[in-house]
Specification:
mainly alpha; about 45% helix; about 0% strand; Cbb3-type cytochrome oxidase maturation protein; Cyt_oxidase_maturation_cbb3
Length: about 70
């Protein structure tokens, strides 16, 4: 008895999903997939810092007792 109810409901939901996919395909929902990804990035992001990579690192600590030799 339950199969007589579940089979038509599942077929109707599958047909509804197929119709929604075809509607989205015809209305251009999949035309520009990369554009949506680039719209998330703001146009004024902070610029890259200038200089060498090692300029950002902390200076090497030297031991005063050994005269700079560790």
């Amino acid at each position: 008895m339950t199969l007589l109810l579940l089979i038509p409901i599942s077929l109707a939901l599958g047909l509804l999903g197929l119709c929604a996919f075809l509607w989205a395909l015809r209305n251009g929902q999949f035309d520009d997939p990369d554009g949506a990804a680039w719209r998330v990035i703001p146009p004024c992001y902070p610029p890259e810092p200038k200089g060498k990579i090692h300029d950002k690192l902390a200076p090497v600590a030297q031991d005063r007792n050994t005269g700079g030799r560790l």
